[in-house]
Amino acid sequence: MRFSLKVSLVALSWYAASVHGQPLEKRAVAFFNPAAGGGSMLDSAAPPLGEPLNVIVSGLSSPAVLTDDGFLNFAKAIGFSTECLGIHLGDPQSANLGDGHGSVNQTIELRQDFGDPDLGTCLESLIGGNHLRVFRQNGPLANSGALFLAVSKEEDVEEGHTIVPDGYDIGRDQLVSSAVGTTSFDGVTYSTTAQNITGLLPVGSTGINHGIAIDGIVTLLTVTIQ
């Protein structure tokens, strides 16, 4: 009876975590190419135009990093935080990561915090800066657990938060520069490596929101908790 109860509790815990998209153990692959499952490395920003998913947090990262709370803590370690006073303007964007879930809205949107994880994003909302949208690949056809990020640098509020010229590549490079190496937040220390990948995204401005050209590079980050 006790064994049966224990098995039931373990199964319930697994189900609850799966429903919330929380990885329970280290995955076997870094990510799956969304195109292989009918998805895209462009999100749906202003159909038919999209924004590039130009950074991937590898499914081979420490499992805790790939959870909602774990990624937020890592993001704070590299200079991003939740939106100013929890206020979000504009509709969420969606992406199809080819994992069997179809088009799914972003998990969260984070903004550059300028060194203050509590109120710094209010400054970003005023003067502009880097920001990112998170999408998780965890469907039945491609369950890597990887996090696909749409990163871009945007203008200030007077410019309506449009993307700066070359803002997708600039946003990606700034995030990667902040992440690589050793970082920490709230008692958790991270070691992050980066690998640039070509062939997943197009080169140029075709299909890209705002007509901003991209160099076609996706950076894969592997984040390990020390």
Strand segment tally: 10
Biggest beta-sheet profile: 8 strands, mixed
* Sequence of secondary-structure elements: HEHEEEEHEEHEEE
The spatial strand order of the largest sheet comes to 2-5-6-7-1-10-9-8
Helix coverage percent = 10-25%
The count of domains is 1
Q: How far is it from the N-terminal to the C-terminal residue, by CA?
A: 39 Å
The low-confidence parts are 1-21
Q: Kindly estimate the percentage of residues that lie in beta strands according to DSSP.
A: 15-25%
Total DSSP helices? 4
Query: Judging from the principal axes of the Cα atoms, what is the shape?
Result: globular
Structural class by secondary-structure content: alpha+beta
Mean pLDDT: 87
From the alpha carbons, calculate the radius of gyration and give it in angstroms: 18 Å
Signal peptide: 1-21
Keywords: Signal
